[in-house]
Amino acid sequence: MTLISILLGLALEYKLGALDHLRNRDWFDQYTRWLEARCSANTLWDGPVGVLLTLVPPLLLLLFLAYLLAGTSVMLAWLLAVAVFVYSLGPDFNTLVNGYVQALENDNAVALGRIEDTLFPEGLADEKEEREKAAIETVLFCSHEHVLGVIFWFITLGMPGALLYCLVVRLEDKYQDIRGGYADAVRNLHQVLMWPSARLQALGFAVGGSLVDALEGWRSVEGDSLSVSRKVIAASGIRALQYRPESSEYHDDKASYIGWVKEAQALSNRTLIVWLTILGVMTLGGWLA
């Protein structure tokens, strides 16, 4: 049922188009502000305890709702799982990248600015190679945050796992420029959650791209620290693509930039297919319910 839930959720996104309008998370922002206003004076708030107090109530509420529905109908509980999975996915990955490519091709400054604010909140370098590498890394990382990370935790912990990853990503986006005990605890939790799925994505890059190059890229940045997960995704993905700035395949800088963005998108989609295939085999073998 887990694989069926994932496939149905992804199929709904593909057939119905981006369902981003159903992923309104303003309630979580309002809830965190309300909670912070009432608990921030307590010294325990500024650290892991505060993060747990933020995340546990929504997850418990979800588990309670699932329990009630399971007592009524197994089908209703399953539909809830599909709905939570779809909700937990980030902005539709392919719609976002396709919109970015189209805006680049059409020189649509308005759409380009809006999408770049989402994809590259810290801006892009002017130098060609740095700009291309940043774009590739961002596309690869978005595929993890929006899709593969959610899938991993949906498989591991079910509905609460998918929602947990979604909310932690939301929290880190909110506190990315803030330093303090609470913000650091959010970042640490995100790094812990990213650790297994980032390495599985790197393996997927190896299968979907250049195997030797991807593994060498992974090995070049791997270490004991949990903080290197993003670097693992970037290095393994770029090497899997065999990215070469001087490639003569593209006739100008703009075509080169668009071409590498599309290559990164294609690699991400191949990686997703690789892991869905593996999940299918695991399901048939009885290793995945």
Describe, in plain words, how this protein is organized in 3D.
The protein is mostly helical and 289 residues long. It has a domain at 90-284. Helices cover 78% and strands 0% of the residues. The protein contains twelve helices and no strands. The chain has helices spanning 2-16, 26-39, 48-72, 74-88, 93-106, 109-119, 128-157, 159-175, 181-208, 211-221, 229-240, 253-284. Helix 5 packs antiparallel against helix 12 (253-284). The termini are close together.
Report a brief summary of the structure:
This protein is mostly helical. The protein contains 12 helices and no strands. The protein is globular and about 60 Å long.
List the helices and strands and how they pair.
Layout: H1 2-16, H2 26-39, H3 48-72, H4 74-88, H5 93-106, H6 109-119, H7 128-157, H8 159-175, H9 181-208, H10 211-221, H11 229-240, H12 253-284
Helix pairs in contact: 1-4, 3-4, 3-8, 3-9, 4-8, 5-6, 5-12, 7-8, 7-9, 7-11, 7-12, 8-9, 9-10, 9-11, 9-12, 10-11
Shape: globular
- Major β-sheet annotation: none
- List SSEs in N-to-C order: HHHHHHHHHHHH
CA distance, first residue to last residue: 6 Å
* Helical residue percent band: over 70%
Radius of gyration: 20 Å
The count of helical stretches stands at 12
Offer a few descriptive terms.
289 residues, mainly alpha, 12 helices, globular
